[in-house]
């Protein structure tokens, strides 16, 4: 008898608690920015592709679901000719993001990737590349690398001294 | 054997080594940069520091550079001593001060010695807070990229380029903190060994420009042991493929053959495998003469029908096809109808060369032996252009005698800088007798340029001076006689003399003269070696198989009606006159060609079957030494492409000669080959058979870090395809399998824990820079006769006499351009010269032509309009025409021709 009253009392109390259940899909769950969901390729602050096609994400991937081919433009800037992620294999471990030396590959708070056909889970570069910087703002790999690319000559990097003059005898 | 103590434990090491060499051979990891197993020590990088103790009671010790310290008996060292560890860590921190933040965009990344050593030393975080030094790069030609910011100033590049390879256009420039390695100005590196800088440089200053066009990392390359197809030396290579195309060639160490080096033709000539000229599907020529693609079954049925109906089938073998493919063709047509795919003169020269090696008393020299020769006599061969890596060996041979003469200075042979300082510019005996000047002339004791007849006479005269039983040369001019005396004197004094000749100057007498010199030397010195250069990667294999020359096929065709011609992997227009080749192809009722590339012969064929290149097939080549070496497919053949021997096996079934294809696997055809020709018995032992397993597993062609397995084909099909089966070898097209060291002939890549760069080869050798574990790959097929009956050649040619109005046209060669396959690589094509004819200034004066003036010369029945190059090194009365360049139709046999000014 006492337990019955206790149960009714508890139910009554819950009427005044905050609701936990969300009416998905009408309402979306608030996800933290570091949620490991759908992978994107980002751009640097100057709008160029961040990915330099170093293959480190591909080697870090434990399920080998990333494949790409490197190429370079006429000024020596490296970028992926094509970049493919097979999300039907991806386990969203985030190793690719950790391995990426340029903040190009990032996992985003988006898990809504259900498809009726597995083929539709194969994302190519045009599906992956976004127009913004993603989570990490302000970083441009080529500004700190020693490589000269179009628009950045030798010695114009943030950490560079001007190129050595081989003809001078001054110390 | 001295005993050294490392961390208190005794180890036996070979005498005379430095501590670094000894410790690496024992399996210890000591970081190093400037030391190179083939170029030895200079002590420049201070990276290989270890602690040396006076005796067992010494606890303090002192830091020494292990590469500069002799491993004496009783030497006590510690590698793990905290002070030595600290020293190495600090040293690499200094070296890394200005190293850019480039690894993600550097082609060396993942196989970088600097990365490995930095990790090994534990220098993980930079502490520097100042800006880095930068340099401007140079354009160094089509093969190499230059990124000087990455340089750590170890001096290996310049030591290799100038000291080892004899290059002159690459220097150490500037000074103190601005030291620069490059040319005096932008331009193509002149050395044909420049590609080795990619492997010599411990970091990414020099990288492969052809790889950069389709870059992938080392761990993503599918690799297999292979053999270079661009000359007869048979250098061991590791081609790497990704996404179905060949991406690069790397050196595969073989202590007896190429050791650490490749030439640029071998390294960069691979692009023909990816060429748009590749034949990928069978072609049939229908009634109106247009080629149409056909399915495999249709092609086989039609060719089978043709073969069944023709009364006669003639097979033309190929010196660039594997031994097995040639044997298969020989089975299809029968030994009496098997013709070697080379012209009469070349067949005669080749069989003469094989005769010298087989029946003479002198063993053929491996490249390793050539590098250790202390006196060399080259007759008729333009070594730098026809056998480039042999040039590298001969350059080393010139250091042997000077090194011996300074023994009383007690300089260790590995103390490179001191040794070179002591010998200065002195060079050991190297005598060249060639028809024109070569790149080796500057290093030669004497370079004699003359007509082939005179070269032969000089050789015969030297042989006569060495052994009076050898025939003497009548009417020798006094200066030639003096030269002969000088050569004979030096060869007789030498401890390991070497005679180099070959088939390239187009005259059998030169070969015979070389044989006489070698035979005469052998009587005095059993360490004598002979090295005979051959033109194609399997010339010797084809020559040993035996057959008639292709010229005589025409007579055979004419004599018999209804004939089918089966041409294996060769372009007849490269071996025959245009008229003769036309004649041959037109006389035959049907022409079947098996080849990988489109050329003039395939354009005239009725049936073309797509053969695999070296990268897609398994087979055996016999190099100029007589060493049978196995190469394995790197790529599974795509589409209808398959090995020629497989096609021919299926043709045997389709034509009704056999009930089914006689060879399903490579081992079956090797078994048949050995049974039919016992001379090839060692071929079966050249590499383990297909059922060989290590711990029950195959050897994987893909590295254990091969990436993208579930994404590569996902655009086509999300279900991963099964890896292609490989019934022909113990290797697998997979990343699964035995990961430890396989037998030496099956090494698909050099990799060891902590050693991701090519320097990992240290871990695969019994002793560093020695033989690979289990012996160097390859089996020698030819050993000299034990009884050593010497019969000298006695036919001495008449001295060369000039003919009024005529010039003797002799063949010339270019490392870039003269070879059929490599010219399809864009870089090689860029460096290939335009066709020309080189004549002496005196003859040019008689012809009244200036430099680049056009002359008309009728070579092989076709007129050639060639610009004249005036070359003082060409002897008067001779004209040199470069072989194989596009636009030159000539089989390279010396002929008297009239040059007409146009």
User: What's the gyration radius of chain B in Å?
Assistant: 28 Å
CATH architecture of the largest domain in chain B: 3-Layer(aba) Sandwich
Largest sheet of chain A: 3 strands, antiparallel
Total number of beta strands of chain A: 6
| Major β-sheet strand ordering of chain A | 2-3-5
Q: Sheet bearing the most strands of chain B, described?
A: 8 strands, mixed
Structurally, how many domains make up the residues of chain B?
A: 4
Give the largest interface pair and sizes: A-B, 50 and 44 residues
Distance between the termini of chain A: 98 Å
What's the rounded overall pLDDT mean of chain B? 93
Structural Rg of chain A: 24 Å
Mean pLDDT across all amino acids of chain A: 93
Instruction: Give the structural class of chain B.
Output: alpha/beta
Helix segment tally of chain A: 5
Overall spatial form of chain B: globular
Question: Regions of chain A with pLDDT < 50 over 5+ consecutive residues?
Answer: none
Question: What's the multimeric state?
Answer: heterodimer
Calculate the terminal CA-CA distance of chain B, rounded to whole Å.
72 Å
- What is the H/E order of chain A? HEHEEHEEHHE
Structural class of the secondary structure composition of chain A?
Answer: alpha+beta
SS elements, strand count of chain B? 39
How are the SSEs placed, and which strands pair?
The complex is a heterodimer of chains A (171) and B (902).
Chain A: H1 2-14, E1 39-41, H2 56-60, E2 66-72, E3 78-86, H3 95-99, E4 105-107, E5 122-123, H4 125-128, H5 141-144, E6 160-163
Antiparallel strand pairs in A: 1-4, 2-3, 3-5
Chain B: E1 3-6, E2 9-12, H1 19-26, E3 49-53, E4 62-65, E5 76-78, H2 82-95, H3 113-121, E6 132-134, E7 144-146, H4 156-164, E8 171-173, E9 180-182, H5 197-200, E10 206-208, H6 209-212, E11 222-223, E12 226-227, E13 236-242, E14 245-251, H7 264-268, E15 283-285, E16 291-293, H8 296-309, E17 312-316, H9 323-333, E18 338-340, H10 344-359, H11 367-372, E19 375-379, H12 383-386, H13 388-397, H14 400-405, H15 416-423, E20 430-434, E21 446-449, H16 452-466, H17 478-493, E22 497-502, H18 508-524, E23 529-533, H19 539-545, E24 548-549, H20 550-559, E25 563-568, H21 578-587, E26 590-595, H22 600-604, E27 607-610, E28 619-622, E29 627-631, H23 644-654, H24 666-676, E30 699-700, E31 731-732, E32 779-780, E33 807-812, H25 826-831, E34 837-839, H26 841-847, E35 854-859, E36 862-870, E37 878-882, E38 895-897, E39 900-901
Parallel strand pairs in B: 1-5, 17-18, 17-25, 18-24, 19-20, 19-22, 20-21, 22-23, 25-26, 26-27, 30-31, 33-37, 34-36
Antiparallel strand pairs in B: 1-2, 3-4, 3-5, 7-10, 8-9, 11-13, 12-13, 13-14, 15-16, 15-27, 28-29, 29-32, 33-38, 34-37, 35-36, 35-39
Helix pairs in contact in B: 8-23, 9-23, 10-18, 10-19, 16-17, 16-18, 20-21
């Amino acid at each position: 008898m006492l337990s019955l009253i206790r149960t009714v009392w508890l139910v009554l109390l819950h009427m005044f608690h905050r609701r936990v259940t969300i009416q998905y899909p009408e309402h979306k769950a608030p996800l933290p920015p570091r949620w490991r969901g759908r992978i994107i390729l980002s751009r640097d602050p100057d709008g160029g592709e961040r990915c330099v096609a170093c293959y480190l994400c591909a080697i870090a991937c434990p399920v080998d679901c990333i494949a790409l081919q490197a190429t370079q433009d006429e000024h020596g800037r490296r970028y992926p000719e094509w970049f493919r992620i097979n999300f039907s294999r991806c386990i969203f471990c985030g190793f690719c993001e950790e391995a990426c030396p340029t903040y190009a590959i990032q996992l985003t708070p988006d898990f809504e990737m259900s498809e009726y056909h597995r083929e539709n889970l194969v994302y190519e570069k045009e599906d992956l590349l976004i127009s913004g910087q993603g989570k990490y703002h302000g970083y441009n790999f080529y500004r700190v690398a020693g490589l000269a690319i179009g628009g950045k000559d030798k010695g114009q990097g943030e950490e560079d001294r001007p190129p050595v003059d081989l003809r001078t005898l001054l110390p | 054997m001295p005993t050294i103590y490392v961390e208190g434990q005794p180890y036996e090491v070979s005498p005379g080594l430095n501590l670094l060499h000894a410790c690496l051979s024992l399996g210890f990891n000591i970081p190093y940069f400037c030391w190179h197993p083939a170029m030895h020590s200079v002590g420049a990088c201070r990276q290989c520091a270890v602690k040396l103790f006076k005796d067992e009671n010494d606890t303090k010790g002192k830091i020494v550079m292990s590469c500069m310290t002799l491993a004496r008996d009783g030497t006590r060292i510690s590698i793990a001593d905290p002070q030595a560890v600290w020293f190495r860590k600090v040293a690499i921190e200094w070296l890394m001060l200005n190293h850019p933040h480039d690894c993600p965009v550097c082609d060396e990344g993942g196989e970088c010695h600097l990365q490995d050593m930095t990790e090994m030393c534990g220098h993980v975080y930079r502490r520097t807070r100042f800006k880095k030094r930068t340099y401007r790069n140079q354009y160094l030609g089509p093969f190499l990229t230059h990124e000087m910011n990455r340089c750590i100033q170890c001096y290996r590049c310049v030591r290799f380029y100038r000291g080892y390879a004899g290059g002159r256009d690459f220097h150490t420039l500037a000074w103190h903190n601005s030291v620069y390695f490059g040319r005096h100005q932008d331009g193509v590196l002149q050395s044909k060994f420049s590609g080795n800088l990619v492997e010599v440089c411990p970091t990414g200053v020099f990288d492969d420009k052809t790889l950069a066009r389709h870059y992938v990392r080392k761990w993503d390359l599918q690799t297999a042991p292979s053999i270079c197809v661009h000359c007869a030396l048979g250098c061991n290579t590791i081609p790497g493929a990704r996404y179905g195309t060949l991406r690069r060639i790397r050196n595969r160490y073989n202590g007896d053959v190429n050791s650490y080096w490749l030439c640029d033709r071998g390294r960069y000539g691979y692009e023909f495998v990816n060429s748009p000229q590749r034949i990928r599907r069978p072609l049939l020529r229908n009634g109106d003469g247009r080629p149409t693609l056909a399915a495999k079954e249709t092609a086989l049925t039609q060719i089978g029908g043709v073969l069944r109906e023709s009364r006669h089938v003639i097979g033309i073998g190929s010196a660039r096809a594997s031994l097995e493919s040639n044997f298969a063709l020989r089975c299809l047509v029968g030994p009496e109808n098997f013709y070697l795919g080379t012209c009469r003169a070349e067949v005669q020269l080749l069989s003469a060369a094989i005769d010298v090696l087989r029946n003479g008393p002198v063993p053929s020299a491996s490249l390793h032996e050539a590098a250790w020769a202390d006196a060399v006599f080259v007759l008729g061969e333009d070594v730098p252009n026809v056998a480039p890596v042999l040039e590298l060996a001969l350059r080393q041979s010139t250091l042997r005698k000077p090194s011996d003469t300074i023994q009383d200075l007690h300089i260790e042979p590995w103390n490179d800088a001191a040794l070179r300082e002591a010998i200065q510019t002195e060079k050991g005996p190297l005598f060249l007798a060639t028809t024109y000047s070569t790149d080796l002339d500057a290093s030669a004791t004497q370079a004699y340029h003359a007509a082939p007849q005179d070269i032969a006479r000089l050789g015969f005269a030297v042989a006569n001076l060495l052994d009076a039983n050898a025939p003497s040369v009548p009417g020798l001019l006094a200066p030639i006689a003096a030269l002969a005396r000088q050569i004979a004197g030096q060869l007789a004094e030498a401890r390991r003399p070497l005679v180099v000749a070959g088939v390239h100057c187009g005259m059998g007498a030169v070969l015979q003269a070389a044989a006489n010199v070698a035979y005469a030397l052998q009587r005095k010195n059993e360490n004598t070696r002979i090295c005979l250069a051959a033109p194609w990667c399997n010339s010797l294999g084809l020559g040993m198989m035996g057959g008639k020359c292709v010229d005589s096929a025409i007579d055979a065709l004419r004599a018999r009606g209804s004939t089918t011609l089966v041409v294996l992997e060769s372009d007849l227009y490269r071996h025959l006159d245009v008229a003769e080749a036309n004649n041959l192809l037109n006389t035959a009722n049907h022409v079947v060609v098996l080849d990988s590339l489109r050329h003039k012969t395939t354009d005239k064929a009725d049936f073309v079957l797509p053969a695999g290149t070296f990268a897609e097939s398994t087979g055996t080549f016999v190099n100029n030494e007589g060493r049978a070496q196995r190469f394995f497919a790197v790529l599974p053949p795509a589409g209808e492409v398959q090995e020629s021997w497989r096609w021919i096996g299926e043709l045997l079934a389709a034509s009704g000669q056999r009930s089914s294809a006689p060879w399903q696997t490579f081992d079956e055809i090797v078994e048949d080959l050995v049974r039919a020709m016992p001379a090839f018995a060692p071929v079966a032992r050249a590499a383990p058979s297909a059922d060989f397993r290590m711990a029950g597993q195959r050897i994987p062609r893909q590295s254990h870090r091969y990436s993208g397995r579930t994404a590569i084909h996902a655009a086509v099909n999300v279900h991963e395809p099964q890896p292609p089966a490989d019934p022909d070898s113990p290797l697998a097209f997979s990343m699964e399998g035995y990961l430890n060291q396989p037998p030496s002939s099956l090494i698909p890549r050099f990799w060891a824990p902590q050693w991701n760069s090519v320097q990992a080869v240290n871990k695969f050798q019994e002793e560093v820079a020695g033989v690979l574990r289990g012996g160097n790959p390859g089996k020698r097929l030819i050993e000299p006769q034990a009884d050593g009956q010497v019969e000298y050649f006695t036919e001495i040619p008449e001295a060369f006499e000039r003919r009024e109005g005529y010039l003797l046209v002799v063949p010339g060669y270019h490392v870039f351009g003269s070879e059929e396959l490599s010219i399809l690589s864009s870089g090689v094509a860029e460096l290939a010269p335009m066709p020309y004819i080189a004549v002496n200034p005196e003859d040019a004066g008689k012809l009244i032509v200036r430099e680049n003036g056009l002359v008309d010369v009728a070579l092989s029945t076709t007129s050639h309009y060639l610009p004249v190059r005036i070359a003082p090194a060409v002897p008067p009365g001779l004209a040199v025409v470069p072989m194989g360049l596009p636009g030159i139709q000539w089989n390279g046999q010396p002929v008297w021709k009239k040059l007409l000014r146009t």
